[in-house]
Structures are given as structure tokens and as C-alpha cells.
């Protein structure tokens, strides 16, 4: 589902590459966790999968990232948004803020794509049910807890029905209750067969839900294996 073919990347202002010759494949349905120290390239990796690199951020790439059969660098960002959904640390980087209710917020991206009203309602209802936030549908995103807000941000990505879901430290700004809500949702999506890349600061947390863990260090894959193997590594 995801393939990195000797992929390297340097930011326009970066003195050294943020990602170096990454070669890896994530099969459909896998939940692949990504850990590593600060500055290791985790966030850059997430943005490369979602096409923000190179499309929005520029810089120098070498090699290829292929998602769902499409080469990211050759696919316009608006098309990629349907293939790859990216959830960020702060839900408010994702929530438009101009909408009054959660339901309207979830419909926003579909409206922009010109999805017919009937289908839009169907998709929004499906995602509300899937994330178990039907009860929040008519509330303002501003009146919700951090965890609930992150679920709304996740929902705004899921309405696009991406084949791959990338989450960049989605719980780093949440309390334990909020983190639990988001992790439960990720677990459910994994059970439903969605391919997931989850960047997370804490390996122990990741080990509870991931099929596989990539450890990045200095933009390279330092370790790659099942959580138990990675946990056992000194
Ligand atoms: P992590 O998410 O693991 O903390 P990042 O992907 O954010 O790591 O950063 C990887 C490297 O790229 C770091 O050296 C960081 O300083 C650099 N970097 C991150 N974002 C930018 C940027 N917008 N411009 C230049 N360098 C960046
Ligand atoms: P369709 O009827 O549109 O073919 P699919 O069931 O094949 O729907 O799924 C299409 C996409 O919808 C999947 O690639 C996935 O990203 C998303 N999807 C499927 N099941 C779920 C789910 N349980 N939660 C979130 N998204 C899902």
C-alpha cells in the first residue's frame, strides 16, 4: 500500500537531509508505528506520505514514495487527499473553525469537492457513528474536550475515505482520557482494515496497538520489526 523506494528528502533551508535513503513497504491493513527521538524525521516522514512533501514544503527529494499505486510527487495534492489522510498533533490545525457544528465541520471537505448532498450526509453520518460521536454532531467544535476535538479532526479526514491514514503524534496534546479516546478510534479503524501509520513519542504506548514499529534516527530506519522485538532492543 505504501512504498518508499530509496527516498531521501532535504528541507529548502535544511543543512542536512531530514530523511535518508528510506526503503520500506507497508502492506494494506497494517498498523505501522513510528518512533524515534526528537528531530529523527518522524514528522517529515508523515508529511512525505501525505504529499505535503514535496508539494507544499518544497525542498529536494530523491527516490520515490508510492501510495496506493500512485507516485506522490507526480500526484496533485487535491487528488492525494483522497488517498492519504493526515491527522496532526493539534486538532485546530485541521478544524476549519468557520463552521458552527461538528456535522458541518465534517461535511466541509466534501462540500469543497462538490460531493452531492445526499452522499455527503451519508458519509458524515457513517463517520459520526464509526467514531461514536453522534452525540456531538450538533455541538460546536469549540465546546468539546481535546480528545473529542481530535476525533472531529480524524473524522474530517475519514469522510474522504482515504486508503491510508497517517497520524502525526495525534495524542501529544491530550490528557490520558483524550488519548484513550483517540487510541480506541485508531484501534477500531485498524480492525476495520484501514492501513495506518502512527507516529508516537512513546514506544510503550505504540507497542500496545501496532503490528510493526519503525524506529527512526537521524532520518534513517534504525530498527524495524514487531513491537516485542523493538521493545527488547537495548
Ligand atoms: P521529529 O518529528 O522526529 O521530531 P522532524 O521530522 O520534525 O523530526 O525533523 C527532522 C529534521 O528536519 C530535524 O533536523 C529538523 O530540525 C528538520 N526540520 C523539520 N522541519 C523543518 C523545516 N520546516 N525546515 C527545515 N528543517 C526542518
Ligand atoms: P467503498 O464502498 O467506497 O468501496 P470501502 O469499504 O472499500 O468503501 O472503503 C473505502 C475506503 O474507506 C477505505 O480505503 C478506507 O480508507 C475507508 N474505510 C473503510 N472502512 C473504514 C472504516 N471502518 N473506517 C474508516 N474508513 C474506512
TrEMBL record:
Domain of life: Bacteria
GO annotations of cellular component type: ATP-binding cassette (ABC) transporter complex
Principal location: membrane
Residues annotated as domain ABC transporter: 2-234
Keywords recorded for this protein, A-Z: ATP-binding, Cell membrane, Membrane, Nucleotide-binding, Translocase, Transport
One GO MF term: ATP binding
Subcellular location(s) of the protein: Cell membrane
Similarity comment text for this entry: Belongs to the ABC transporter superfamily.
The protein's name: ABC transporter ATP-binding protein
Organism: Gandjariella thermophila
Phylogenetic classification of the source organism: Bacteria, Bacillati, Actinomycetota, Actinomycetes, Pseudonocardiales
